[in-house]
């Protein structure tokens, strides 16, 4: 378990630093090269944060590739909600090791409902495929960051939610390991009156972290999952406090164009091009302080508003 005396940022690194465990013959295949295990951080509502599972999965696959190769893309399907009571197992299959690229698949599993630890691993909660590449030279072009005020000029989440007595507000204000500052007005408490179609937030870990490059990639995956629903809520005139709101991530993809430190400010520019069939799609771009495009993110989620009555 994570040391309760660690700072939130250091606790996040510890959370993503998985334990290697023996291969389980019940789930291992001929392609399985390693298995890891990780714990969960407490969340309001008693569920496992999807970004945590993604970050841990990135850390798991990254430990099985040849030295010098870093992740450039990953695609995750969220298959079932995680149970914070049980550790999560990550079973990594090697699909390819070529001259420049390595491809891995990882399944995150937990005991089926009603089973105890060590009694089987009947539920797959996440399936991810990820590709890694050696550092190489090639053609380059990129979009540049839009104009935005710097994070130092924006209120923190704790300042925005000051005086709100609610468990979720307390968690967002004091326990999240990622510092998130909205350029567009936050929609924690009410909808966006301006109906803004593009959302921008700055984010980084709350404090500098002493971590490997792989851990910085895993932290970026973790942090990318905090705000993708918000552009959908903005376009629909909703907020996090809308009664009957139900949200769940279906799939999430990231492309790393350039590698950066997750403890340095990144501008996350997001929009939602579509919502239909009870699902919403968001697209995001991550830029560093120099304005360089460092990653692209897409997410599809279930979004429904249950009517009272």
Automatic annotation (TrEMBL):
Report the residue ranges that make up the Acyl-CoA thioesterase-like N-terminal HotDog domain in this protein.
Answer: 44-133
The segment annotated Disordered runs over 135-154
Q: Which CDD domains match?
A: Thioesterase_II_repeat1 (cd03444), Thioesterase_II_repeat2 (cd03445)
**In the record, what terms sit under GO molecular function?**
fatty acyl-CoA hydrolase activity
One of its Pfam families is 4HBT_3C
Q: Which GO terms describe its cellular component?
A: cytosol
Name all Acyl-CoA thioesterase-like C-terminal domain ranges: 165-303
- Look up keyword S-adenosyl-L-methionine and say if it applies: no
Question: Gene3D superfamilies annotated for this entry?
Answer: Acyl-CoA thioesterase, double hotdog domain
Q: What are the entry keywords?
A: Hydrolase
The Gene Ontology biological process annotation of the record reads: acyl-CoA metabolic process; fatty acid catabolic process
SUPFAM superfamilies given in the database record: Thioesterase/thiol ester dehydrase-isomerase
Q: Does the keyword Cell inner membrane apply?
A: no
**Signal peptide interval:** none
Q: Which family does it belong to?
A: Belongs to the C/M/P thioester hydrolase family.
**What name does the UniProt record give this protein?**
Acyl-CoA thioesterase
């Amino acid at each position: 378990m994570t040391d309760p005396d660690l700072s939130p940022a250091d606790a996040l690194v510890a959370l993503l630093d998985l334990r290697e465990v023996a291969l389980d013959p019940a789930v291992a295949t001929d392609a399985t090269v390693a298995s890891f295990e990780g714990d969960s951080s407490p969340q309001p509502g008693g569920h496992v944060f999807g970004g945590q599972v993604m970050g841990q999965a990135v850390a798991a696959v990254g430990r099985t590739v040849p030295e010098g190769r870093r992740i450039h893309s990953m695609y995750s399907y969220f298959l079932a909600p995680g149970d914070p009571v049980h550790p999560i197992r990550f079973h990594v299959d090697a699909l390819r090791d070529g001259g420049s690229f390595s491809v891995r698949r990882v399944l995150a599993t937990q005991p089926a409902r009603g089973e105890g630890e060590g009694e089987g691993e009947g539920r797959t909660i996440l399936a991810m495929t990820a590709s890694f590449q050696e550092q190489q030279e090639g053609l380059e072009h990129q979009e540049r960051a839009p104009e935005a005020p710097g994070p130092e000029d924006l209120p923190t989440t704790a300042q925005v939610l000051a005086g709100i007595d609610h468990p979720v507000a307390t968690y967002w204000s004091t326990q999240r390991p990622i510092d998130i500052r909205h350029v567009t007005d936050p929609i924690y408490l009410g909808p966006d009156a301006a109906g803004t179609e593009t959302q921008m937030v700055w984010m980084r870990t709350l404090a500098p972290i002493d971590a490997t490059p792989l851990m910085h990639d895993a932290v970026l995956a973790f942090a990318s999952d905090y705000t993708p629903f918000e552009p959908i809520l903005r376009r629909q005139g909703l907020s996090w406090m809308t009664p009957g709101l139900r949200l769940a991530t279906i799939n999430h993809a990231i492309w790393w164009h350039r590698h950066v430190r997750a403890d340095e400010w990144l501008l996350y520019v997001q929009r939602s091009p579509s919502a239909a069939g009870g699902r919403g799609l968001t697209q995001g771009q991550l830029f560093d302080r120099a304005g360089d495009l460092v990653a692209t993110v897409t997410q599809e989620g279930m979004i429904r508003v249950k009517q009272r009555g």
